[in-house]
Structures are given as C-alpha cells and as structure tokens.
User: Which sequence fits this backbone?
C-alpha cells in the first residue's frame, strides 16, 4: 500500500520533471512576453542571440514577428520560477533596441520591397503593438487571477484602441475598392481584430478545460486504487485478524496478498503496465508468467515461500507448459517433504534451451529408497520432461537438500526470437 | 570481520519499520550497532555526514528522490560509507537504479534478521550483496540477445563465464559458501567475482542498464 502511494508520488515527481524539460516563457526579466528568454533557457544560450535572431528574421516578410507571436500564444508561461532572472539596465536597453529594430525591419523591408504600401504596413504595425499590449496584460492577469487595477484597465484599453486604429488605417486605405468589397473587408478586419484581442482568453479557457480533465483523471485513478485496495488488501487483513491463532494460514494469506499486490503494482499486466486488474485471471502466455503463477499456487497451497527468478523469457508452447508443470511438481515435492519454509526456483531461457532449477535446503533423500508406488518424481516430473524431449537431473542426499534440474530444448522456430 | 560492531545508520520514511529493524538488530547480535536513523532525504544527508556510520541501510522509495538521491548527495563527501539498499520493491528498474547510484547491495525487506546482519557485515567488509532476484536481473541485463546494444567496452560490458556461473548459482538460491563448494573455489574468490559484477553493473553502458537508469533520470 505504501509502495503504491510512493509510486504515485514518484510518477507525479516525474511529471514535474517533464514539465521542466518543456519550454516555458520567462516570468521575470522579460522585455515583451518572455519568449526569447524562455527559448534561450531552453536552448541554453544567451538571450541576446535569440532576440537578435528574432529581429533579423523579422526582416524576412515579418517571419520573426510571426514566430514570436506564435510562441507567445502556444508556449505557457512558467508557473513559478526557481530563480528570478536579474536584468541589467544595459540588457533592458539592448532588448528594447532589438525590439524596435525588429519591428522597424519588418515594416521597413515590407514597405520597401513593395509587398505592402507604407500605410498598410504602418496599420499592421500599430495593430501588432496593440495586440501585444493586450496579450501582455493577459499574461499578468493570469498571475493575479482577475484583479484588474486601474493601470491594467488603461493598458488593455490602449491596446484595444491601437488595434482598432490599426485596422481603421488599413481599411481607410482600401477606399478605392467598391462598396461590396469594402464591406466584406471591413467585416473580416473587425473579426480579425476581435480574434486577436481575445486569443489569450480563449487560450486560457482551453487550458483550464485541459487542467480540469487531468484533475478528473487523477481523481478517477485514485478511486480505482482505493477500490482495489479495499477489495484485496483490506479483505485479506480482515481474514488475517480472524485467523490469528493459525500462523500458517496467516503466512499463506499474507504471501498470497503480497504476490497479488506486487503483480498489480509492478507486473506486466498490472497497474504499472496500464491494464488494471489481476494478472492471475488470464492464462499465461510467456514462460515467466507461467512460472510466477505456478510458484504462487504452490505458495498458496502449502504456505511456504517460493522465491522465483526468471532470466530471459519466451512464449509458452506445449513442451514448455509441460516443463512448467514438472517444475511445479518438483516445487510441491519440496514443499511437502523437505520440511523447510523456502524453496528457490530459477529459470533461464537460452538460445536453444530452457533450464529450470528447483532447490530447497531441506532434508534431502536417497532416491534409491523411494518406494515404487510413489510416482511423484518418476511420472509427473521425469515423464513430462521426457515426453517433450527434455531431461531431468537430480541432486540430493540425506541432509543436503534437494535440487531438481530440468532442461528442455526449445522449438527451433522460436529459438531465434529471444525476448 | 571487524572486532568492533559495525555502525549502522537507518534511512526509511516509515518510522515503524525503522523501529522494527533497530529492535531486531539490537537484540539478535553484537556485530552491528544502530547509531542513527533518518526519515527524510534531508535528515539522512545531515545525519550520515555527522555520524559517519560504516553502513547505511537505505530505503529505495522515499519522498524527495528516495534512496538514489541520498546516495547522490552523500557519497561525494563520505566515500568510506557503504550503502545497502533495502526495499519492498522487486522491480528491476528500482534494483538496478539504486545499484548504479552506488549501493553495494540490495536486499528485500522480507529478509530474515540473521540474513540482514550477515549482509550488513558483508558490505562493511567491502563485499557486494546480491539477492537472488538482483542476480537474475543482472544476468538478464548482461544477456547476449540478438539485437542487443553493441559492446563498446568488453572489459565492462561482458561478464566472464566464471562471473556468470557465480551469478547463476546466486539466482538459484545458493549461499556464498555453497557456491564456493560447487565451483571448487574459495569463498573469497566468490566475493571477488560478485564485487566485480557489481562494478560492471555500476559502470557498464549496456543498453538495458542505461535504459533502466535513464528512465529514472539517474544518469
């Protein structure tokens, strides 16, 4: 249960880390919107170069201005900055100079190249400055969460007026169009103006929705964890309390619960792997799952600890299924006869064979004294192995514990697949 | 084995668990002595720097970065302190990550008290402690699979056949003494092999190892 919560906490930490890797606009030490600063932080270069690049790019049909605007819209502002970025007055001046240069270049080159006539370019520039004012205010506001001061209101209004003026200038220059075209253009220009002015608000709406959705998913996840813990862990704990005079039974319940919870938390089909639910419900398809399942069954039935380690993995076929049964039988023998509380199962998948070792440190026995009618080893284990073309080796002696070594060649088709 | 008791520092965010381990260690043996404990990464860093223990028993999962963070922040200043990771998790990435961050061994919290004492004494003597699970993971990570990462440094990226044999026996549940008898070598040689495997696990850039580590942002 603790491990579970820890894992959730860790995932959250990881999300925070991921967040830091994403680019953010700077909060402090910004000239306009912190885009250049954020980009500089992200790329690990001096902010001056980024600003210079934007200014120079602005000369190419205003590409720098466009890029800046798009980054402003789509890159979130940093939530809280660990360190305030100090800005010298010299850097501030530099930034303003570069800003003026960028806008000047965009408008100037546009006008000179005849792409736009001077007045239209001027109108667009005025619109942009107005939009920048309003957006900047929206950034500020996001921090303060709607507490519009007088100066904020003044700035927003100024921005809006600038945008309207810019559009008006732009329209005023189009008087040579006929009535119909002019009306159409006026409508489009007005819509564009409104869109530009309200972008920050739309954006915030969308983001808030996203945040809310994340929150809801998180809540659902938490509910699912709680439900699972209730169904399994709390029930088991209740059973354990009732059984407190039967230590073996308590041990069995605790081990079983531990295994189930582990499977849920860390298993391939468990909580970590995305598909919730018990991994024990479906038929195993690979060797490691089959061995884990078999060991779990033995643990449950005989109230002992079966420690299994699997190196490599491969899909289960008929022969390997038989082998797992044989290993299970060997584990059961150990649980029944060795008289110890712990059995080790080790499986290793090789290029062309699978080996399983079942070992206990218990009593051991002398194979020649096992009566003929005890079929455990003879039939279920050796028989299963030999039917699949595998072999069995047994190492034991009185007082030395027992180790059953199973070896099964793999299907030639599957042999090259590995993991 | 040291004549003086091994000085142990406990780091775990569950007070109940710390108390349990302390009581067990104090009652069953004189070989180890608990000299301090901490419940957070910050406390641990301060306490380890102050107490200079021989061995730190380190929980893998804690808030603020867990055992790996403690390792990162204390190892540069305390090169003589050895760390033994102790966790409920058997997940490969946890085990490999904390080993790569510098722990000399990894045992699960269900280990018996006597085995824990043995593990503490062993790491304090400079040896590595591998649980069967960890041995399995390391074998898996160093396995030669088709399509595995290219081997850039054979010295670090490959296990010798002997090291493989030792790891295999560890994974099969053999104790060091039993491994020594099985392979007709001395226990000291077994320890040397395990330490060498530990070093390779920490330093190799094999794909599986790096991936586990980088997934957790440890390297």
Assistant:
């Amino acid at each position: 249960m603790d491990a579970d919560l820890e894992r959730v906490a860790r995932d959250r930490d990881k999300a925070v880390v991921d967040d830091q890797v994403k680019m953010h606009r700077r909060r402090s030490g910004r000239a306009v919107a912190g885009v250049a600063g954020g980009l500089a932080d992200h790329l690990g270069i001096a902010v001056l170069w980024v600003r210079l690049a934007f200014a120079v790019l602005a000369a190419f049909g205003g590409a720098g201005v466009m890029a800046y605007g798009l980054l402003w819209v789509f890159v979130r502002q940093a939530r809280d900055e660990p360190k305030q970025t100090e800005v010298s007055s010299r850097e501030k001046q530099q930034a303003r100079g570069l800003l003026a240069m960028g806008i000047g270049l965009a408008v100037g080159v546009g006008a000179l190249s005849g792409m736009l006539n001077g007045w239209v370019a001027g109108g667009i520039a005025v619109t942009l400055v107005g939009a920048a004012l309003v957006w900047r205010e929206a950034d500020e506001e996001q921090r303060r969460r709607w507490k519009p001061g007088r100066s904020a209101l003044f700035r927003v209004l100024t921005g809006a007026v600038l945008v309207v003026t810019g559009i008006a200038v732009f329209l005023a220059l189009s008087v040579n169009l006929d009535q119909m075209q002019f009306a159409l253009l006026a409508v489009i220009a007005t819509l564009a103006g409104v869109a530009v002015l309200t972008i920050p608000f739309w954006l915030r709406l969308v983001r808030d929705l996203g945040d809310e959705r994340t929150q809801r998913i998180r809540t659902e996840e938490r509910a699912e964890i709680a439900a699972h813990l209730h169904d399994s862990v709390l029930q088991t704990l209740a059973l354990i309390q009732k059984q407190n005079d039967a230590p073996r039974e308590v041990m069995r319940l605790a081990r079983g619960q531990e295994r189930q919870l582990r499977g849920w938390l860390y298993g391939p089909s468990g909580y970590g792997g995305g598909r919730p639910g018990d991994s024990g419900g479906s038929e195993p398809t690979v060797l490691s799952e089959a061995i884990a399942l078999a060991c779990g069954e033995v643990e449950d039935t005989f109230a002992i600890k079966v420690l299994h380690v699997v190196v490599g993995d491969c899909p289960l076929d008929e022969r390997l299924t038989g082998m797992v049964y044989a290993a299970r039988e060997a584990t059961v023998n150990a649980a029944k006869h060795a008289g110890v509380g712990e059995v080790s199962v080790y499986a290793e998948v090789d290029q062309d064979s699978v080996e399983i070792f079942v070992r206990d440190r218990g009593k051991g026995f002398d194979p020649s004294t096992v009566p003929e009618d005890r079929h455990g080893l003879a039939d279920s284990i050796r028989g299963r192995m030999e039917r699949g073309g595998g072999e069995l080796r047994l190492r034991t002696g009185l007082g030395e514990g027992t180790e059953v070594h199973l070896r099964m060649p793999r299907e030639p088709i599957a042999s090259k697949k590995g993991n | 084995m040291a004549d003086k008791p091994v000085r142990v520092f406990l780091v775990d965010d569950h007070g109940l668990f710390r108390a349990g381990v302390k009581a067990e260690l104090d009652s069953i043996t004189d070989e180890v002595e608990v000299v301090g404990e901490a419940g957070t990464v910050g406390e641990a860093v301060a306490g380890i720097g102050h107490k200079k223990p021989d061995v730190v028993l380190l929980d893998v999962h804690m808030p603020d970065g867990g055992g790996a963070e403690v390792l990162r922040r204390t190892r540069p200043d305390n090169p003589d302190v050895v760390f033994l990771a102790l966790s409920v998790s058997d997940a490969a990435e946890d085990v490999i990550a904390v080993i790569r961050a510098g722990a000399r061994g990894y045992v699960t919290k269900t280990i018996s008290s006597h085995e824990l004492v043995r593990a503490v004494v062993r790491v304090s003597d400079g040896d590595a402690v591998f649980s069967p699970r960890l041995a399995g993971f390391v074998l898996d990570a160093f396995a030669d699979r088709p399509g595995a990462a290219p081997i850039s440094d054979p010295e670090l990226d490959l296990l010798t056949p002997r090291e493989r044999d030792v790891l295999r026996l560890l994974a099969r549940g053999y104790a060091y003494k039993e491994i020594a008898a099985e392979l007709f070598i001395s226990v000291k040689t077994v320890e040397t092999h395990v330490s060498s495997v530990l070093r390779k696990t920490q330093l190799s850039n094999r794909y599986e190892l790096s991936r586990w580590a980088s997934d957790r942002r440890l390297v």
Chain B touches chain A at residues 14, 61-63, 65-66, 88-91, 132-133, 135-136, 139-140, 143, 145-147, 168, 171-174, 217 (CB under 8 Å). Chain B has a mean pLDDT of 82. The domain at 136-215 of chain B is CATH 1.10.10.10 (Arc Repressor Mutant, subunit A).
